[in-house]
Amino acid sequence: MRLSTLLIAALSGVASAAIESVVMKDRHFYTESGKPFFIRGVDYQPGGSAEFEKGHDPLSDINTCARDIYMFQQLGINTIRVYSVDPSLNHDECMTLLAQAGIYLVLDVNTPLQNQHLNNQEPWTTYNPWYLEHVFSVIEVFSGYANTLAFLCGNEVVFEKVSAKTSPNYIKAVVRDMKGYIERHVGRVIPVGYSNADDLNYRISLAKYLECGPEGYIDFFGVNSYQWCGHNTFEGSGYDKLVEDYSDMSIPIFFTEFGCNEVRPREWEEVDALYGNNMTGVFSGGLVYEYSQEANDYGLVDIAKNGQVKTRDDFMSLQKAYAALPKDIKVPSDVKLNKRPATCPPSDDPVFDHITANHTLPWTLGEDMIKKGVADKAKRGKFVTVSTRATNYNIVIDGKVVENKDVKMTVKTSDQKVLSPGGHGQNTGGWDGNTPAADSNTAKTGTETSAAAAVGGQKAIVGSLVAVAVAFGFL
Predict the structure, then answer these.
(1) From which residue to which does the signal peptide run (predicted)?
(2) Whether residue 183 lies in the annotated active site
């Protein structure tokens, strides 16, 4: 009789103590025990965002999770990013198995569904109690897992002129509300950040705006970058300019998407640069786009209709690139540290070119939920006994069918400490309980005109929104 995976792990000494939460210190991530944590991962949304529907998501089926977590271990990653989840589903088994494999989660709180994302052209039409209930429900569920590394408030919300005028202060409002909820209802600080489009017009200006305080400031900034293509160099790819652009930021920076596909197969030369001395003072790793092959042709694996997974050439080359990295990557001793939160420059400062830097945020429409929580609508996740560690689906790696598909346990979840009820009590820039005045005198100059109009539009509809919200029990 074959020994169970758990027993083998125990006998071999592979499984260590409970998985550690990841925390921020200065402009980098660290484990609770103080070890630098550099994100080495992939973006994971089989079927793509367009296929997302209520009642199913990437972390709700243990057979699918066991298949893909096995592949994550073969790839040698420590983090995945998931773009959309349904908080009404049970994610306990998948999150437990991820934790036991030593893998963390960066999670977007939005979905393509109605009332579950911001309309970036007219954000005041979608920033409403129903949207915030969804956001808070995602936080409520996934804050129960120690391997939830961070939440993303948005992905490429700003990407052209209209959204650059109307959306920035709404992004900050969502960050403020998310942090307000975490401060009051989660017993540890879970970072909240934003994932930025690969556009030179907004790469610096939006980062500077979202970084600054006193409320709604992000904890980290994600960069979606596809500028290193084929055989290239640190300077030739423009990575040197990226490092220069973000060198005076006060928060962690990492690639939320990377991996140009213009030259095939991808050789992943940028991996060596990203985790090398030229970048680790500013960047904290990155997430490769993406795990499964979709219509846009970035996949590392093919997933058949019968559930079989088969590696592509890009998987094998990325596996080699990750395996060649040093086991322990250090934070440079001369890393530049800056005050946090950063002080906001005036709205008309040249640093905010191309965006409307409105420092007056829309008042929260989630006041009651922030105060009381949404535990009556969303059940907090927890680590559980996993029903299966080996998928029923076929796995083919480099042309060979895998026989032993057990996910290896590298850390234990049975020893996980349970957080005390209530929030962590720290001021991290969340909603402070004081609703800003609706008639703030915001300067309507230059690029601020559209954002001021957005606030005016919100005033016009807020009465009916609140009335409906009260009727449905949201407020």
Answers:
(1) 1-17
(2) no
